[in-house]
Amino acid sequence: MNKIIRKIQLSDDVFQMEIEAPLIAEERKAGQFIILIVSEEFGERIPLTIAGADEEKGTITIIFQAVGDSTKELGKKSEGDYIDSLLGPLGKATHIVKYDKPVVCVGGGIGVAPLRPIVEAFKKAGNEVISIIGARNKDLLILEDEIRAYSDEVIICTDDGSYGRKDLVTAPLKEICESRDPAEVVAIGPPVMMKFCALTTKPYKVKTTVSLNTIMIDGTGMCGGCRVTVGDETKFVCVDGPEFDGHLVDFDNMINRLNTYKHQEEEHNCRIGLDSKGGEK
Amino acid sequence: KSRRAIPLQEMPSQDPLVRRNNMEEVALGYTESQVKLEAMRCLQCKNAPCISGCPVSINIPGFIAAAAEGDFEKSIGIIKESSSLPAICGRVCPQETQCMATCTVGKAEKDVMRSVQIGRIERYVADWERENDKIQVPEVAPSTGKRVAIVGSGPSGLSAAFDLRKEGHDVTVYEAFHKNGGVTVYGIPEFRLPKKIVEIEIDTLVKMGVKIVTNFLVGKTRKLTDLLEKDGFDAVYIAAGAGLPKFMGIEGENLVGVFSANEYLTRSNLMKAYDTANSRTPIYHAKKVAIFGGGNVAMDAARTAKRIGAEEVHVVYRRTEAEMPARVEEVHHAKEEGIIFDFLTNPVKILGDENGRVKGIECLKYELGEPDDSGRRRPVPIEGSNFIIDLDACIPSLGNNANPILSNSTPDLEVNKWGNIVVDENNKTSIDRIYAGGDIVLGAATVILAMGQGRHAAESINKLLKA
Ligand SMILES: Cc1cc2nc3c(=O)[nH]c(=O)nc-3n(C[C@H](O)[C@H](O)[C@H](O)COP(=O)(O)OP(=O)(O)OC[C@H]3O[C@@H](n4cnc5c(N)ncnc54)[C@H](O)[C@@H]3O)c2cc1C
Ligand SMILES: Cc1cc2nc3c(=O)[nH]c(=O)nc-3n(C[C@H](O)[C@H](O)[C@H](O)COP(=O)(O)OP(=O)(O)OC[C@H]3O[C@@H](n4cnc5c(N)ncnc54)[C@H](O)[C@@H]3O)c2cc1C
Ligand code: SF4
Ligand code: SF4
Ligand code: FES
Ligand SMILES: [Mg+2]
């Protein structure tokens, strides 16, 4: 049982929660994640990135988008409520290096949340950090100030031009690859975005790291459900990742695998929608 | 003579046509008159060859004699001198290769399956104890002031916790999952081993004062050596299980619709995905499923797929029925439930459709050649015998290798080339005060062997702490 200390709504369906988890706060590093179950009896194990931690207070921060059944259930929890189980920190930490050339951090949508601790870690290691963050529109853009705090330069893109450039994140990324010769690109966001970021940097041979969000259960390497094809090898994202060389990941296979239960998940969501009719939205 | 006239008591079971649509236990257990009759089939051999077949040397004629007299309290007492999990072992032990294999009755009748049904009697008395609220919380010795950490709550960790706590040590079990029991709760299905039974075993431990911490992955939440160096434990027992699913390495294994048995069974058992009305965890609904493998894991996956609603379930196995490592009873039950066995067949490739979903498998026919190192006749592929089976899901169920989380995060911990932790005859690892046992040492083995190692390691740790 882990207590929710603070809850902030960042946009329509994006929430930030600070949760008591002293051991995880002490051990975690940028790039790692947790797996939680909101309520154990029939609950689902869902992975979420550790977006920050306060070792002194013994808390970690998660930022999540309520996209389906379990994340919506989590979004309904309030400050003072408990989460039944929380396991972590899982996965390997981001490999942070001090480069002579700039590091580009690209985040799309909810992907800006897992990107934030990586931006911070690269900056603290003494790098020049250029961040590109994007969202569908201005209201959906999250963590702009937090990203600015650790970036030398921030480029904002929205699909509808309601804020920053009216562009996909790949447009400024391509320009930077051409003009600034970056040492490494880290891209985190929807799988399609990561796929196109990797395709964008490939001709420039810039090392490109992506953080994969495959379907998981245990998070300990026991089930193999999170496996992806990287080069000609099979890797388990929960223990070998979540970060991989974006130029080697078979994104099409990964996207197909993410849709394994799409049909059932949608049905489940519909049913839940019906249950709460008349109640809160 | 008269004993030899008593017929072997068959196990009452749920009707196959009914049970393949539910998750309830298949084998219903003997009645009181049946257990007495079966117990009377035992010849009470002076040399008791059955005992040497049991990995934890239960006094088999002893507990059977008490059962024959109807003194079930005495009977369970005798079993518990050697085994702390009889309700589990009575159900899942591969008896025909262990205690029943050496039984005189089976020898005389030239059929191991006609030996005294030792496991079924064991199950009866263990169930009798539980159902009549006779489970006693063993007395715990006065506190020794010593603390032991146990990594993993499977049969091996639980039995070590039991023995160490009895000696008066302060015992904490760390478990990565949100539930305790290891493979007995996430792997072995409800219809073979009701979860309630495992829960009650764990309750007893808690009543004895064993602390259990779930959602704690040693190696990640805390380093293994930190347990000794920072958290003040005097010794550690690693019972982390095997837990790394084997795949075949064939083309198409990452297509949508290919699941390791571990994943499929964990969704169904631990996460209750079979209960589609309540569980938030989904499970793949396929019409036609193929299971690859011939062990207990494969039987469990096949029978679960049937219960999830598959119309046709195939077990694809390279050798013949005689070489199958699964318990005979499971194979028998699987057949009754309509599982189709494709022997001397092996998949070479999984075929996908335009959406990356499984649509079939390409197989090769085999024949049996010369015996290999294990004494089993080696399967040899018949060239050009390729054929295709149309289906929409496959479940490689080839067992498990050692999970590397602990060894990767603990460089000084010696492992062999398969990743299993290396231990000496006292179950001690290469690091002082750290012991290991069960599947993480033996490779995927059995509940009773894992339990036996837990007890042996507990004895070694006890000696260390009393020195
Ligand atoms: C390492 C990792 C880190 C992540 N970090 C974050 C984060 O910081 N913030 C955030 O909002 N989201 C994050 N995600 C994604 C998050 O886990 C999913 O959005 C969530 O599991 C969806 O569950 P649901 O029941 O709400 O939705 P559903 O409607 O059940 O599923 C929606 C989609 O989410 C994916 N999904 C479903 N179940 C799982 C599962 N058990 N594990 C992983 N994906 C699943 C599938 O693609 C599915 O189609 C992360 C995923 C991974 C693997
Ligand atoms: C599907 C299936 C069917 C089987 N059927 C039979 C059968 O019929 N008869 C039989 O005798 N045997 C059977 N077996 C084998 C038997 O279950 C195992 O041999 C036995 O459970 C091993 O016990 P263990 O305690 O060593 O490990 P496990 O039961 O694997 O338990 C290990 C526990 O440790 C936890 N863990 C792992 N790493 C860590 C860590 N770093 N920190 C904290 N916790 C950790 C795991 O989550 C797990 O709960 C079957 C196995 C499977 C998979
Ligand atoms: S524990 Fe297993 S091997 Fe030993 S007597 Fe019981 S059923 Fe037989
Ligand atoms: S070998 Fe068989 S008949 Fe003899 S004592 Fe053991 S169980 Fe009884
Ligand atoms: S989530 Fe099960 S192996 Fe990665
Ligand atoms: Mg869900």
Q: What is the gist of this entry?
A:
Chain A is an alpha/beta fold and 281 residues long. Chain A has helices at 22-27, 69-75, 112-124, 144-149, 170-179, 191-201, 237-240, 251-258, 262-275; strands at residues 2-11, 14-20, 33-37, 46-49, 52-54, 59-65, 82-83, 85-90, 103-108, 129-135, 153-158, 165-166, 184-188, 207-211, 227-230, 233-236, 243-245. In chain A, the strands form four sheets. Chain A has a seven-stranded mixed beta sheet, with helices on both faces.
Number of helices of chain B: 19
Radius of gyration of chain B from CA coordinates: 23 Å
**Which pair has the most extensive contact?**
A-B, 43 and 41 residues
Total number of β-strand segments of chain B? 15
* Gross CATH architecture of the largest domain in chain A: 3-Layer(aba) Sandwich
N- and C-termini, Cα separation of chain A: 27 Å
Helix content of chain B: 25-40%
Decide which structural class fits the backbone of chain B. Answer: alpha/beta
Sheet-strand content of chain B, in percent, reads 15-25%
| Beta-strand share of residues of chain A | 25-35%
> What's the structural domain tally of chain A?
2
Average pLDDT for all residues of chain A: 92
Quote the average pLDDT of chain B: 94
Distance between the termini of chain B: 53 Å
- Tertiary shape of chain A: globular
Low-confidence stretches of chain A: 275-281
Structural class of chain A: alpha/beta
Binding site for FAD (chain A): 63-65
Protein name (chain A): Ferredoxin--NADP+ reductase
EC number (chain A): 1.18.1.2
GO molecular function (chain A): 2 iron, 2 sulfur cluster binding; ferredoxin-NADP+ reductase activity; flavin adenine dinucleotide binding; metal ion binding
